[in-house]
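Box 4.2: Ligand-aware structure prediction
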Amino acid sequence: MSHDLFEAARGAMQFAHAPYSKFPVGAAIRADDGKIYTGANIENLSFPQGWCAEPTAIGCMIMGGGKKIVEMAVIAEKLALCPPCGGCRQKIAEFANAGTKIYLCDEVGVKKTMTMDELLPFSFKTEILG
Ligand code: THU
């Protein structure tokens, strides 16, 4: 059921610290431990030091004991179907499988479902690094 993830992402978006872009984003992860971990974007006066909602949620998942992303929802109040940025795709991929579902939302619910492989085809992988 993805609606609970949508609601968690929408709730997380309220915590965004986005005074510069005024573009709040929320993310919610259902992890392999069954828990939902959430995050919002956190900007900084030194603009490059800010970060996206997805890594906030990933950090919460790791520190909460979750190891894998089972499914994930992303929402932005000013952009329906806000897609995770390129860097976030790589960060999500670290904890996902090719078939992991990413839900892109609008203000009422999940509007588009994509797999990790659709979001980040031909991703960086090498056996040299493990
Ligand atoms: N943002 C995210 O939080 N996630 C994304 O995948 C796209 C962009 C944030 C970063 C910045 O705080 C604001 O949206 C505008 O780029």
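In the box above, the bound molecule is tetrahydrodeoxyuridine. Helices lie at 3-13, 53-64, 86-93, 116-119.
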